[in-house]
């Protein structure tokens, strides 16, 4: 039996980073992953360039049953700390949009850096290697049955991530282990994921597949009061029509907040005073409504919208003010109820996970002494834009300091 101070299960973002820091603090670390390839999610992230953090990360961009849980870890390992690490490795990067930092060359730079950090800490890496069983022994140590034989360690860190993209190695190992040790779970569900609609409801919009436009989008209860709506998080990003529904950054963002049965509300013409502009057009133009509308929103959208309503297929000069105001109102507050999401196959992350009530926000240690959970397996989920990696680094760092 081989003995280690700590075994970390999952060599993704959080596991690799935690292993490197713990190793460099002098601990004898074993890092185990069942996948052939290391850190596959880092490799495919950010279109291959890894949006590795967000300059403006703060607890406000994270979802959790306890929104305060992430505070301590995020404040002790900041985006600037990770930027400093990249600079030590001379990794070039750039800011793309709203504080999002990407590698200039490739996500491979981040993976190589994390592996080099593990090497600097003398970390033992077993990959591919499956962990069959984890038990707490009477002597206070953990015993893990692995493909490469049994190992023993005083502490175990679970960094097996969420459920998204099962084909590159995502499993529910972390959740099962949490349950085995009596820890609570917040029901996991796919997030940062395209939304889908009933075939019939979607038929008029299916022709718009491929169209992208800037929108405002939010979600909430169908009967939300104006006060509740004021509190809803509104995203100002691009929306993308697909054959089955809606995607693009705006929709991925709102999908993390969406609950089954709730509508999403989309303003398809933000910053445009549609009611007034349509009434002005009526006063001066004999063109079809679709043609006038096409000067205010993308023409494909204008055509699809107007073709769904026979009352709008006429010259704008013939339309009633009420009809034009109704058209403007529907475009500015398009409400539609998704029938679901594209699921874990397409989701970037998982909302929910190990319940933070059973974890220390200072150390990530669970109520089961010596058992820690870091990264996406925990019920902390970031918005789109580099926040999920920042949580992986920050939770890993907090844990490594405590091991
Ligand atoms: P991660 O998933 O990285 O690692 C978990 C590891 O555990 C994997 O290596 C897996 O093989 C291993 N594992 C699982 N089960 C196991 C078992 N039973 N035994 C052993 N090992 C096991 N975020 C962001 O901030 N910026 C971005 O640009 C993107 N882009 C992006 C694109 C796409 C397509 C996806 C799917 C996701 C993103 N994300 C992202 C999210 C980000 O990738 C994610 O939040 C982090 O990788 C989470 O890090 P973890 O280390 O917690 O899990």
TrEMBL record:
Domain RsdA/BaiN/AoA(So)-like Rossmann fold-like: 5-401
Classification via InterPro entries: BaiN-like, BaiN-like_dom_sf, FAD/NAD-bd_sf, RsdA/BaiN/AoA(So)-like_dom, RsdA/BaiN/AoA(So)_Rossmann
Entry-linked Pfam families: HI0933_like (PF03486), HI0933_like_1st (PF22780)
Flavoprotein is among the record's keywords: yes
Named cofactor requirement(s): FAD
Domain called RsdA/BaiN/AoA(So)-like insert: residue spans: 189-349
Domain of life per record: Bacteria
UniProt keyword terms in alphabetical order: FAD, Flavoprotein
Protein name as annotated: NAD(P)/FAD-dependent oxidoreductase
Source species: Polaromonas aquatica
């Amino acid at each position: 039996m081989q003995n280690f101070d700590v075994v970390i299960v999952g060599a993704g973002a959080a596991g690799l980073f935690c292993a490197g820091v713990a190793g460099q603090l002098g601990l004898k670390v074993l890092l185990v992953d069942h996948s052939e390839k290391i850190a596959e999610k880092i490799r495919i992230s950010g279109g291959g360039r890894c949006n590795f953090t967000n300059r403006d990360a703060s607890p406000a961009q994270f979802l959790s049953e306890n929104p305060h849980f992430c505070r301590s870890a995020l404040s002790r390992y900041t985006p600037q700390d990770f930027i400093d690490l990249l600079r030590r490795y001379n990794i070039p990067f750039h800011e793309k949009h709203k504080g999002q930092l990407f590698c200039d060359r490739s996500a491979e730079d981040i993976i190589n850096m994390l592996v080099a950090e593990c090497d600097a800490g003398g970390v033992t890496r077993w990959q591919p290697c499956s962990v069959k069983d984890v038990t707490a022994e009477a002597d206070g140590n953990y015993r893990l049955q692995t493909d490469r034989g049994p190992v023993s360690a005083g502490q175990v860190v679970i960094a097996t991530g969420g459920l998204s993209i099962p084909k590159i190695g995502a499993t529910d190992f972390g959740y099962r282990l949490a349950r085995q040790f009596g820890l609570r779970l917040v029901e996991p569900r796919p997030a940062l994921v395209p939304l889908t609609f009933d075939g019939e409801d979607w038929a008029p919009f299916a022709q718009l597949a491929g169209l992208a436009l800037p929108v405002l989008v939010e979600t909430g209860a169908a009967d939300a009061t104006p006060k509740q709506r004021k509190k809803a998080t509104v995203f100002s990003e691009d929306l993308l029509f697909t054959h089955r529904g809606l995607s693009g950054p705006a929709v991925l963002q709102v999908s993390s907040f969406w609950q089954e049965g709730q509508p999403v509300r989309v303003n398809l013409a933000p910053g445009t005073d549609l009611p007034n502009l349509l009434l002005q057009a009526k006063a001066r133009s004999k063109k079809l409504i679709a043609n006038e509308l096409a000067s205010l929103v993308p023409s494909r959208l204008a055509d699809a919208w107007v073709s769904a309503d026979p009352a709008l297929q006429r010259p704008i000069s013939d339309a009633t003010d009420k009809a034009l105001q109704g058209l403007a109102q529907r475009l500015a507050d398009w409400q539609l109820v998704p029938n679901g999401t594209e699921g874990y196959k397409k989701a970037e992350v998982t909302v929910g996970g190990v319940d933070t009530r059973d974890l220390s926000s200072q150390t990530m240690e669970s109520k089961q002494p010596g058992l820690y959970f870091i990264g996406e397996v925990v019920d902390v989920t970031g918005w789109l834009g580099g926040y999920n990696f920042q949580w992986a680094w920050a939770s890993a760092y907090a844990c490594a300091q405590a091991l």
